[in-house]
Amino acid sequence: MSRGCPRRLRPIRSGVQASGSPAPSRGSSSDPTSIDLPFSDKALPDGTLAISIVVPVRNEAENIIPLIEEISEALGARRDYEIIYVNDGSTDTTGERLSAAMKRWPNLRQLKHGISSGQSAAVRSGVRAARGAIVATLDGDGQNNPEFLPELIRALEEGGERVGLAAGQRVGRKDTGFKKFQSRAANAIRSAILNDGTRDTGCGLKAFRREVFLMMPYFDGLHRFLPALMRREGFDVAYVEVIDRPRRSGVSNYGFFDRLWIGIMDLFGVWWLIRRKKPTPEVNEVTPK
């Protein structure tokens, strides 16, 4: 595991978010992806819930139970977490499998999109509804091994306020040669333009501070640019090497960066956001003496 930026890269500093910052505003009624889902303003007041595990899924019925079992085993030493599955408009029995699983795991929650809105929308809906101050994500197809969740969470917790994201970096990829080529090409182009110091942004295994995530501008594809956007907000990124594994069953429902034109527009949009970021001023209220 490595913390912060690679040696030749300095973080884009704009002042680390203070712990007393106001909660992000709720979405407007024009938001089609998650306005009807619960929004949690803060972690539980008694401090018993620290971690929310968010899993976006679409048509992953056969992978539901095995992955929940692995998540529960990986976090078995903790009692301060919840698991939030975001059912992104599945047309198979994913919803039914999750409803049955909720009777077995009391800390399991299911959110449902009326129509499929994409992975970024699913992650955002889960983060908005999360009750933990720290959110960890992983893909629902079983390729991301939950045994790395504790290490990601630990990297974030030990990094202190300066670290906003712990990002998994895949080794031993189990995808096809063509998908590996796509991912390598996309990562190389993204890194050259954004200089975000991250080898692999396509890995679903991530842990981040919920408050910071909700500060970011939302757009479809956000999850692919989290390291660059975290640095834009003035935070550092920790990296954890994780071992990829084959999908258990089914076919891929979410791509990496292979919608070429959309990906290019997103890339230059993030570049513009970074260039337009102004340093966050220190604000102090002046009271009469």
Q: In words, what does this structure look like?
A:
This protein is α/β, with parallel strands linked by helices and 289 residues long. The protein has one domain: Alpha-Beta Complex (Spore Coat Polysaccharide Biosynthesis Protein SpsA, Chain A), CATH 3.90.550.10. Helix content is 32%, strand content 16%. It is built from eight helices and seven strands, in the order βαβαβαβαβαβααβα. The protein has helices at 64-74, 94-104, 119-129, 149-159, 177-194, 210-215, 226-232, 260-276; strands at residues 51-57, 81-88, 108-113, 134-137, 163-171, 206-209, 236-243. It has a seven-stranded mixed sheet with strand order 3-2-1-4-6-5-7, with helices on both faces. Helix 2 links the parallel strand 2 and strand 3. The longest helix is centred in the middle third of the chain and has 18 residues, at 177-194. The protein is globular and about 60 Å long. The relative contact order is 0.19.
Question: Secondary-structure map with pairings?
Answer:
Layout: E1 51-57, H1 64-74, E2 81-88, H2 94-104, E3 108-113, H3 119-129, E4 134-137, H4 149-159, E5 163-171, H5 177-194, E6 206-209, H6 210-215, H7 226-232, E7 236-243, H8 260-276
Parallel strand pairs: 1-2, 1-4, 2-3, 5-7
Antiparallel strand pairs: 4-6, 5-6
Widest β-sheet, arrangement of strands: 3-2-1-4-6-5-7
Order of helices and strands: EHEHEHEHEHEHHEH
By CATH, the superfamily comes out as Spore Coat Polysaccharide Biosynthesis Protein SpsA, Chain A
Assign the CATH topology.
Answer: Spore Coat Polysaccharide Biosynthesis Protein SpsA, Chain A
Quickly name the level 1 CATH class.
Alpha Beta
Mean pLDDT reading: 79
- Termini Cα gap: 50 Å
Anisotropy-based shape: globular
Can you name the CATH architecture?
Alpha-Beta Complex
- The count of domains is 1
Estimated structural class: alpha/beta
